[in-house]
Amino acid sequence: QVQLVESGGGLVQAGGSLRLSCAASGRTFSNRVMGWFRQAPGKEREFVAAISWSGGATRYADSVKGRFTISRDNAKNTVYLQMNSLKPEDTAVYYCAARNAGYASVAVTTREYDYWGQGTQVTVSS
Fold it and tell me: Of 15, 42, 85, 101, which is least packed with CB atoms within 10 Å of its CB?
């Protein structure tokens, strides 16, 4: 089992920044692809960003490219999401997710992730 705990959410004005963190515990972290997803009220959970084992490969949703950056620190078992130039439409609950160990594809769909955190609320005011 892998436990994921997100932190760093909050209320911010449009144009502002937040950094989300996701701390992983349990089984091996360094050979897991990690992702961030979000879910706004009344909408389905959607992909935001994902990162490979080493951090050398990343993928982003078109809606956040150039504004969000995903990174990881395998020594700390932590993945981050730096969010800049935030917009009201970024308001959502943000979830951290992990793939099963050994799967190398930097996946973008919810069904490809096996472990999920409880989520952290991000609210961007206009």
Answer: 42
Segment 13-64, tens digit of pLDDT: 999 999 999 999 987 898 999 999 999 999 999 999 999 999 999 999 999 9
- Measured CA to CA, the distance from residue 67 to residue 49 in angstroms comes to 11
- For residue 45, the model assigns a pLDDT of 98
Strand, helix or coil at 117?
Answer: coil
The set of residues, in sequence order, having a beta carbon less than 8 Å from that of 55 and lying 6+ positions away, is 71, 72, 74
Q: Residue type at 66?
A: G
DSSP string of 47-100? EEEEE-SSSS-EEE-TTTTTTEEEEEETTTTEEEEEE-S--GGG-EEEEEEEPP
Q: Identity (one letter) of the amino acid at 69? A: T
Cα 116 from chain centroid?
Answer: 10
Classify strands 46-51 and 34-39 as parallel, antiparallel or unpaired.
Answer: antiparallel
The C-alpha atoms of residue 71 and residue 80 are separated, in whole angstroms, by 5
